[in-house]
């Protein structure tokens, strides 16, 4: 499931002050990726959405890493590319 947290609020999909369901989705085992919506319209990028998810939604570093890993696994990279770069997404925080 692609989630665009900033866009969800800016477009009115979620009301101001309404709790974003991202954390509940993660805890329910839904495979979630954090994404940015149209950068030209939203004036934000994927890093902004990850920062927002941590700061405003309260995702932990582990939850952020989980979303990054899910994004990598769901990407359109070839199996060989995933094998080559996969270790970057499997390291634990230090």
Keyword list:
two-stranded parallel ribbon, 6 helices, 2 strands, 94 residues, single chain, mainly alpha
Task: Describe what you observe in this structure.
13% of the residues are buried. This protein is mainly α and 94 residues long. The longest helix has 14 residues, at 61-74. Strands 1-2 form a two-stranded parallel sheet. The protein is 52% helix and 4% strand. The chain is globular and about 45 Å long.
User: How many helical elements?
Assistant: 6
Query: What's the N-to-C terminus distance?
Result: 28 Å
> Mean pLDDT across all residues, rounded?
89
Runs in which pLDDT lies below 50 for 5 or more consecutive residues are none
Radius of gyration: 14 Å
**Could you give the order of strands across the largest sheet?**
1-2
